Amino acid sequence: MSSRYRVEYHLKSHRKDEFVEWIKGLLATPFVLHAVSHDVDDLTTTQRVRSQYAEIFKDIEGLVSNKIDFDSRNGQLEENDDSEVKYDLIGKSRLNQLVPSIGSFFTELPLEKAFLWEDSQRGISERRMVAPSFNDVRRILNTAQLFYFADKRKKYHYNQLKLVTFDGDVTLYDDGGSLDYTNPVIPYIVKLLQNDIRVGIVTAAGYDEPSQYERRLEGLIVAVHDSSSLSLEQKHNLTVMGGESNYLFRYYENEDNKFGFRTIEQDEWILSHMTEWDQSDVDQTLDFAEKTLRSLKDRLHLPEETALVRKKRAVGIVPGERYDPVAQRRVHVKLEREQLEEVVLTLQATLETFPPARRIKFSCFDGGSDVWCDIGGKDLGLRVLQNYYSPEDPIRPSQTLHVGDQFAPVGSANDFKARLAGCTLWIASPAETVFFLSRLGFS
């Protein structure tokens, strides 16, 4: 019964990425056709399976290129034509027809090459009992994105990558942790800065003062300060965008040997359309979200220690603490996964019908142990940095890479919106972040 429960829960639509599931479906056919072979030394079968998998990824690679071409021509028409004429002329790309929820691709993806590399490392085509999985496809997509940037640099001696952004929890450090000096990701971030790549930490953690970020990122800012390979200009290319897209901080150091993050005033970075948001709509959205969270706390019988937290640009529900007589100490109250997802999906659906919320942008997400509603979103956070670093010629999505762990399609994942503003790597742990950064090839 428990196994069936896990399967049924995993198949809920809000937890599925349709593009990944579609690729898995394509790969299922050659797997099933050759699963009858249990001889681990059957090289002929392995070669046949590998060839068919590779051919599928080559075809998907072509569909991605075709979609990029469609989207490019579509963008040109948008400047001169109304949507009905544009639709009649362009129609839909083949990939949009096959995967209606597919988003934008900002670069081509060498998927066949990526599959062959991953297969050589993980023996995907050698397997007879376990079909290509979600994680297999996720890693192949990540590898293809890395190969694209590496191939461009190798072929044209030009670094197309201009901006790399990171989520915090579960991407740079464990959930609720911090970036101390022993963290293996730090040397790779320093290498990015050394290669004149801007680095932004785009996090949902929303503090309007830099001290909290300095505490959580202490190991990184000390390493940047102590680095003899970084110029002062390169050090200044480290920023933090807090609360998704609400607070901007930039690394500084002065002649008195003080260093850390300084606040960048909003009028120096805010996007033009964000200035059009009425403050009353922001306040009413947060008020309504808070009311909804309070109602859900009662309806779902959440522990009484669970607290509602209201900030200037966010509101959330967080687990509290209670005294454990066995451990003889205070311990965190844990909210169940089902409770967290019920809260975030209900909150999202409720706000989508609330008129003030429809006039601005907001993000609802499940942080793993809590649920928050933030004003703005990570897509805006990335666009802010793209414009802030280069106001006259903004960094393009094709020159941007966001690394995060929360890319589920609906409601519960705040990295998902980053796909609207740049290329992405979907990682599952801080160790994976280190692994993929090591393969970018910067020395």
Automatic annotation (TrEMBL):
<dbReference type="GO" id="GO:0008253">
    <property type="term" value="F:5'-nucleotidase activity"/>
</dbReference>
<dbReference type="InterPro" id="IPR036412">
    <property type="entry name" value="HAD-like_sf"/>
</dbReference>
<keyword id="KW-0547">Nucleotide-binding</keyword>
<dbReference type="GO" id="GO:0006190">
    <property type="term" value="P:inosine salvage"/>
</dbReference>
<keyword id="KW-0546">Nucleotide metabolism</keyword>
<dbReference type="GO" id="GO:0000287">
    <property type="term" value="F:magnesium ion binding"/>
</dbReference>
<dbReference type="InterPro" id="IPR009453">
    <property type="entry name" value="ISN1"/>
</dbReference>
<comment type="function">
    <text>IMP-specific 5'-nucleotidase involved in IMP (inositol monophosphate) degradation.</text>
</comment>
<protein>
    <recommendedName>
        <fullName>IMP-specific 5'-nucleotidase 1</fullName>
        <ecNumber>3.1.3.-</ecNumber>
    </recommendedName>
</protein>
<dbReference type="GO" id="GO:0071590">
    <property type="term" value="P:nicotinamide riboside biosynthetic process"/>
</dbReference>
<dbReference type="Pfam" id="PF06437">
    <property type="entry name" value="ISN1"/>
</dbReference>
<keyword id="KW-0067">ATP-binding</keyword>
<comment type="similarity">
    <text>Belongs to the ISN1 family.</text>
</comment>
<keyword id="KW-0378">Hydrolase</keyword>
<keyword id="KW-0460">Magnesium</keyword>
<keyword id="KW-0479">Metal-binding</keyword>
<dbReference type="GO" id="GO:0071592">
    <property type="term" value="P:nicotinic acid riboside biosynthetic process"/>
</dbReference>
<dbReference type="GO" id="GO:0005524">
    <property type="term" value="F:ATP binding"/>
</dbReference>
<comment type="subunit">
    <text>Homotetramer.</text>
</comment>
<dbReference type="GO" id="GO:0009117">
    <property type="term" value="P:nucleotide metabolic process"/>
</dbReference>
